[in-house]
Amino acid sequence: MSLTLPSTRDESWRWSDLSGLDALAVAPATGTTRGLDSHWIGTDAAGGPRLLFVDGSFDDEHSRPGPVAVGLTEARSDHPLAKLATAPGWTLTVGPDGATPPGPIEIVHIATGGASHVPARIVLAEGAQASIVETYVGDGWANRLTTIDLGRSARLMRAIRIIQDSGFTSLRDEARLDAGASLVTTLFAGGEGSSRLDAAITLDGPGAFAEHGGALLARDSQRHDAAVVVRHAQPEGTSRQLWRAVADDKATASMAARVEVARDAQRTDGEQSLRGLMLKRTATINLKPELEIFADDVKCAHGATVGELDAQALFYMTSRGITPDRARALLTQAFIADALSRIGEEAVRDAFQAEAERWLESRS
Amino acid sequence: MLKIENLHAEIDGKAILKGLTLTINPGEIHAIMGPNGAGKSTLSYVLSGRPGYEVTEGSATFEGEDLLDKAPHERAAAGLFLGFQYPVEIPGVSNVQFLREALNAQRRLRGEEPLSGGDFLKRARAQADALGLSMDMLKRPVNVGFSGGEKKRNEMVQMGIIDPKLAILDETDSGLDIDALRTIGGGINTIMRKPDKAVLLITHYQRLLDYVKPDFVHVLAAGRIVRTGGAELAHELEREGYGAIAA
Known about the structure:
heterodimer, A: mainly beta, 17-stranded mixed β-sheet, 4 helices, globular, B: four-stranded antiparallel β-sheet, 12 strands
């Protein structure tokens, strides 16, 4: 397969480094999975739905898909990476006022060295509810497309954890929300691999609510790159984009968050908060908040700041006996806490926070 | 306990301390008074190891060990506590977590067992009660949303929980009303007035010394101690001003 990848001359890809993908696209997968049990957040005994994909292939033996249908999907995109995702994937359909079983549906994606391109489709009918947690681990290139269609007053919570040991994770979400629907997506990118996190969310009915954000932790030569567009097409919508990025060593973390407010989308309430923390001055953080507003009665707040750890707070903590490394870890964790606090399920939130803590503690 | 000899220190190339000598023995409470810019805060920062301050001459030992050689967290573990003139706000880190981490980091460095969550909370509750801070406040982020007086009380709660050997209290009395001053003075006496502990109070005014009676009062001017006396010296300073005394 020959790849045609976007170039950094393309404005929306200027901070991405896709140069490793050509090699990853043809790299052989070893198929060896280790420590499988450690990737699930919920206990096996709880019996909730769980799906395992190894190199993009559904692993029937370790899964109990519950309401999720596995196979070819209707998800399609012309996004330069997501369009590759045409293999069999998964589809979750929940009927009117229906709900997935208590606790989240868990999906674990293990990459074992090669590339995988998996589409997914989530369709919630009017008043339906679902919660999904996805985890990306291993080595290789995991490329995913998720298309989401939320009916009136439907509610979807997503939490996505990217903790690959190496390689690349590229996610593309395309979501459409009908009136009063709610979509909350929280991402955590840590691990040792790089990522590109794309989303296009359209508030297509009055009073819809979309929240999309998360924490990006990058070190060594890692690159995390988030690019999100929220489009308010109808009035009285609310959107929140809260991102926290931490970059150490020679790593790069980038966040481009865009809000578009159409002419008819009066009384839109949009908020963007992009904050970067540089742990070393050799690191790079790029922030690009964008607002494009055609309606006249809107409230759109945006803030973008980059800084370093507060030297006064560090001294205060060390003067009380906390080691400098631990003080830095505590302050960094406090910095990203906002971004993870939106995860509704306590066990999931704890697992994400523990992942952040592990990243901070293993900092040399 | 603390022996400072001929200490010279500068910040950004500007000499602040110019040959300061001071000895503090266990069981003693010392007060250092002096006009603005005399070097009082610099002394507290140099002793606690704040980055940016450079010692160019002289020495400071704490229980016979070179203090200036140690990192700030090592000085804390050795038993030194700095009460900040402007306690720092740390959003996202609760007082309880901060203090438990601090206390157990010190214990680890001293080769002691960490305190359990239950024992820690018991100790924290006792100190908070004594200083009129609620446990609810201790569960909030460090100093965030605290008034000036609450921040100073919190410094004393921290001191009580950490239980240091030597406390250097940098203008702990500034910004306090009379009631708070009494509470904090009482806290200092309860926590620190013991035969094996010592206190160095840094203050502009005599009023804290009404509650915490010093054994020695020193006048710091232009980076050196220019006069030493007993508690009565503070009254004399209050009456006559620094100009007359330090000249």
